[in-house]
Amino acid sequence: MKVLLLGIGNILFADEGVGVHFANYLAENYRFAHPQHSLDILDGGTLAQGLTPIIAKYDHLIVCDTVNAPGVMPGEVYFFDFDAAPAEIDWQGSAHEVEMLQTLTMMEMLGDRPKTFVLGVTPTVLEPMHLGLTQDLLAAIPVMEKALLAHLSDLGFNSKKVADNTIESLYQDAIYREASNPCLQ
């Protein structure tokens, strides 16, 4: 089985970039191993539909992103099967969130969507030209990390923490990662 952990978001809009920052955080701090399966971690930026040919190559997809849930406090973490989304998730967040929903729906109609899970967190603020996350989302990172590591363990992956970088220490490099990411060219 091929598993893709896909970080989605716009790093220039504060909490909007949490999926990308979280994917980079995991790639820097962990190594994952499984006797038969593979795990790739990808910064998908805001591409959504442009990622279709990449996503279609996988059997299992975990999308890390913001999720919109009216009336829910910022920093609330959700981890769910895309086919059984909680009722409070309304998919009316940012433009890329709506486009990612459309991409996954289109892939389902074509029979190309892998089994999909969403690891999402409700944003505090989507603020233009602010590189970094708010305190509410920073506090949610350990919860997201624990949920993802448990899910990967359930899939049979072993994880080894190889570094102890903070997510904040990776903000500046996110711009350079995106500039050199062939998927985002």
From TrEMBL:
Keyword ATP-binding: no
Protein keywords: Aspartyl protease, Hydrolase, Protease
Enzyme class: hydrolase
Alphabetized InterPro entries for the sequence: Pept_HybD-like_dom_sf, Peptidase_A31
One of the GO biological process terms: proteolysis
E.C. code: 3.4.23.-
Domain of life: Bacteria
Matching CDD domains: H2MP_MemB-H2up
Molecular functions (GO terms): peptidase activity
Membrane-spanning ranges: none
Similarity section: Belongs to the peptidase A31 family.
NCBIfam families reported for this sequence: hydrog_prot (TIGR00072)
PANTHER family reported in the protein's UniProt record: HYDROGENASE 1 MATURATION PROTEASE, HYDROGENASE 2 MATURATION PROTEASE
Name by which UniProt lists this protein: Hydrogenase 2 maturation protease
Source organism of the structure: Shewanella khirikhana
Lineage: Bacteria, Pseudomonadati, Pseudomonadota, Gammaproteobacteria, Alteromonadales
Gene designation: hybD
